[in-house]
Input
Amino acid sequence: MSMSAKFSVMESQIVSLRIPLTLGIIMPLSVSSFIFCLAEELNNGFFTLQKMAGLRLITFWIINFAWDFVTLLIYCILYFIVMIFSTIEGFPLSGKLATFLLMCLHNAPALFTVYLTALFVGGNKTRSFLIATIVQLVAGLLSFVVYWDVTCHNSVILYLSMIFPTFALLQGASNIYMLSKERQYCTRRCEGITNCTSVNMCELMQNC
Output
């Protein structure tokens, strides 16, 4: 392999990690911020007053979830707009759109994790936010780094870590980029082969 090819492979690997690592920092901070209002309601007795006023528990959680989910969806739309204007080689608009859809799917279980954390964490809002952020980072970003760099893509670690919403998001974003990069590479190779089309590409090129 030539030196330029080696640098190209290294660059692809770095970018494939840069995208999920960026999401692994942004999304936990965004999701954990929703613990502020919930912690204030639980610590100041507002939740107890609402129950005394006749508010059903399921109604309380549904309203909170709906409001937080819509707000987090707006955050994801803003992040998607930033991704559109970002220049990442080998990451087309379709890949960015797929990543955005993954972010939307990630919101529901991630909010559930934050709610679960709020029930077991006492103290002020800042402490609750820090603990929720640490939980999200450890369950997502740290697990992703361990899976990639420490265990070298161990299947058992993968399946165990997939129960964490943030890890699933990061792994999905990495896979989307790698698939987009592979498709771009195979298309470029196909252009140099006679009678090569998108239909018979896999037959003419084994790696594709």
Residues 17-180 form one domain. Residues 3-32 form the longest helix (30 residues). The chain has a mean pLDDT of 79.
